[in-house]
Amino acid sequence: MENVTIINHPLMSHKVAILRNKDTNTKQFRELIEEITTLLTYEAFKDLPTVEVQVETPLEVTTQQVIAEKSVAIVPILRAGLGMVNGVHTLFPTAKSWPHWHVP
Question: DSSP strand E in the chain: where?
């Protein structure tokens, strides 16, 4: 299964354990979904293409790699995906969100 990525990280295991606990309340559950989604987003976007830009620092102008503006859109699938939108917005605050039936 070459298209499957297994996240084997202690932080992810810790958060999933709390998420699955029967004593986890609704507020904690929502916060954990957001945190887990942020971690998943970090991993899922590791190969996202970048573009070169010139950045003026306090000392000099330098070339840096950035993600192309408007290259990320969030399309939550089914109701369960809605709880994950904020986790993606943590890393991509300007990304547009589209319902899965209305992708342009």
Answer: 50-56, 61-67, 73-74, 96-97
Residues 6+ apart with CB under 8 A from 31: none
Amino acid at position 5, single letter: T
Tokens of 37: 């989604």
pTM, 2 dp: 0.79
Provide the CATH number for the domain formed by 10-97 in this structure.
3.40.50.2020
Token pair listed for 40: 């998943």
Classify residue 89 as exposed, middle or buried by CB count within 10 Å of its CB (0-12, 13-18, 19+): middle
Tokens for 86?
A: 């904020």
Q: What is the pLDDT of residues 9-59, one digit of tens each?
A: 999 999 999 999 999 999 999 999 999 999 999 998 888 889 999 999 999
